[in-house]
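Open question from group meeting: does this chain pack into something compact, or does most of it stay loose? Before anyone orders reagents, we agreed to write out a predicted structure and look at it together. Recording both the input and the output here so the notebook holds the full record.
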Amino acid sequence: MDVVFSAMRPTGRLHLGHMAGALTNWVLFQDNYDCYYSIVDWHALMSDYADPSGLALNSREVLLDWLSVGLDPEKCAIFIQSHVTEHIELHMALSMIAPLGWLERNPTYKDQILNLRNKDLSTYGFLGYPVLMASDILVYKANKVPVGEDQSAHLEISRELARRFNNFYGRNVFPEPETLLTHYPKIPGTDGRKMSKSYGNSLDIADEIPVLDKKIRTMMTDPARERRTDPGDPNKCPVWDLQKFFNDDESQMREIPAGCRTASIGCIDCKKMLIAHVTKRMTPIHERRAKFAGRDDELADILADGAKKARDKAGRTMSEVYDVLNMPKQ
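C-alpha cells returned:
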C-alpha cells in the first residue's frame, strides 16, 4: 500500500477552507493508503519562536478539528511532530547535504520574508524549513503527498534531497515522493478574500451553527447587486463558491445561478438555502467535536498510539540512514 504523508501547523482552530481544501480528501485517503497525518509543531516554531505559549492549546484545537471531520485513528496515524524524534534526526542528516543556494532561491522563503515584516524570519530554522519538510515526508518513505496543482512545486526540494542522498551514498534509501493531486475547491472568506484567520474573515469548523448563520448572513455577494431587483453574476459571488461545496441539491444548484442572473431570487434567499445545507453538513461534525472535547485521556491516547505507529515506521528508515552513513546506532 502506498504511503501518504501530510501535515498542518498548529496555529489555532481550522476553518472551512482547510476542511474543503485538505481534510475532506484526507478522510478519503485513509481508506486507500497507509496515511501519516502530523501536527507539525516544530514548523510552527519557525515563525512563532518568540511566543510559543499557545502551541499546546493550538495543537489540541487542530486535533479536535481533524477528528470532528472524520479522521479515524484506527485507519491512520495521527500524531504530533515533536513526539517522533526521527523527524529531527533525519533533518540533521539532510541538512549536511542541502545546498544553501537551493534554500535561498526557494520562492516561498522570499515571499514570506517580504510579506511577514512583523516577524524576524532571518533565522537558520526558517531558511531551512524545506529541509525539515523533506524530513517529515522522507522519514516515512512517503510515495505520495497530497497537494493542489498550484502547490506541486513545493515538493521539488524534497525530491531533490531524496535523489541527492541516494546518489551520495549509493543506496536507494528514499523514494522520490510524488504529488497526489487533489481538487481544492475555492472557499473564500466572508469578505470575498482568501479565507484566513489573519484577515478576520474565516468560517471556523468549530463555529456553532448560530455563529455560522450570522457570518453567512453578513457575507458580501456580487457587488453589482445593490438592490434586490439587480441581476448578478454568481461567479463573482463568494456565497456561490460555498454553495458549490455544501449544497448537494441538484435542483437548487440549477435554480440559484439562473435566479441570480435574472434577479428572480435575492441574495438573502440564496444565503438561507446555504445556511440550511451548512447546518445539515456541520451538525454531525460539531457533535463529534463536542464528544472528543470532553475526553482528554482519549485524545492523549490517540496521539500516543499515532506517535508509536509513526516511530515504528520512522525508526526503520533511520536505521537504514545510520547504516549508509556508517554511524553505529546505539
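Observations to bring back to the group:
DSSP finds 14 helices and five strands in the chain.
The chain has a mean pLDDT of 92.
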